[in-house]
Amino acid sequence: MDIAVSAESFGYRLADVFAERRYEGNGVAVFVDPPRLSQSQLMRVTTEVRQFESAYLWPTPDPTTFETRIFVVDRELEFAGHPVLGAAAVLHERHGAAVHEQQWTLRLGTRAVSVRTLPDERGGYDVSMEQGTPAFGPVMDDHYRSRVAQALSLEADDLVPELPVQWVSTGLRYLIVPVRPDALTRARIGTAIFGELLAEAGALLCYVLDPENREGRNWVNDGSVEDIATGSASGPAASYLARYRLADMNKTIELAQGRFLNRPSIMRVDLAGEADRIDGVRLSGHVCLTGTGTMDGPPALR
Q1: 100 CB neighbour count, 10 Å cutoff
Q2: Measured between alpha carbons, how far is 40 from 3 in angstroms, rounded to an integer?
Q3: Are 44 and 52 in contact (CB under 8 A)?
């Protein structure tokens, strides 16, 4: 049966980011040159598609530069890692297929993000972006360690004793909480005031990290949603491992996430400089393109 396509229809591409194969990693719906919709309309489209996040891109006079907006189902984001990587892979498929390696610039408000795409032999893309220079916050005291452990449904002894609790940032301040391997499985946010506890440390979000296995977990601060793969936390986590001599500065650092959601994900980080003075962080991941869809038309204005 033929399906009629409206003149107002617009399409999207589905991408799985930090995925070694399709149906893994963190998903994103990428809309290239959709109608110029209002914020409320874009929010309604995002809710309709119900991917983990949605990215909307519009061309500029420079064929490698695109205006970009990123949404989750309840708000617009100023920046997010995995939608940027997924969007760049979709752009390469659509506009750069004849080029082996391509550089893209995605403009999110006043921020311009440079992304490199490289197709591989598996039909996917290796995509990377610069995250900047990491900043390290203060080391928190034992009393705070006990409180944050309790807020994560853990005991103080579940934290690795010789490693600090502190925030690290390449744009967003993540409180790095190092835990023993068995504690990662049990970790979950168990308090409604977790955001206030993070604010005491000067952090915005939390990344629970198993340094031994290089695996992490992250949630929204009310604990209602666990993130599959947190690209914006990967640079801070890798920088933390290097700072405390748990990872080699001269080798790519691989971080795992998503196991507890049955969406295994691998994030790769390369660091520049020295362990005590890291001056560059590059985040990379593999992207699989998994499907396409079409919206018959934009939502009505309200």
Answers
A1: 9
A2: 28
A3: no
Tokens read off for 296: 């018959």
pLDDT in tens, the chain (302 residues): 444 456 789 999 999 999 999 999 999 999 999 999 999 999 999 999 988 899 999 999 999 999 999 998 788 888 888 999 999 999 999 987 667 899 999 999 888 999 999 998 888 999 999 998 999 999 999 999 999 999 999 999 999 999 999 999 998 899 999 999 999 999 999 999 999 999 999 999 999 999 999 999 999 999 999 999 999 999 999 999 999 999 999 999 999 999 999 999 999 999 999 999 999 999 999 999 999 999 998 888 76
- Sorted by where each starts, the structural domains of the chain and their CATH numbers stand as 10-128+287-295 (3.10.310.10), 135-285 (3.10.310.10)
Q: Give me 245's structure tokens.
A: 């001599």
If one counts every other C-beta atom within 10 angstroms of the C-beta of residue 39, the result is: 11
Instruction: Assess contact for 168 and 239: CB atoms under 8 A.
Output: yes
Residue found under tokens 């993000």: 113
Structure tokens at 209: 């990290």
Nearest to 31 by CA among 44, 7, 15, 13: 13
Q: What is the token pair recorded at 54?
A: 């949605």
Token pair recorded at residue 126: 């290796």
DSSP states along 31-81 = EES-----HHHHHHHHHHH--SEEEEEEE-SSTTEEEEEEEETTEEES--H
Kind and range of the H or E run holding 13: strand 10-17
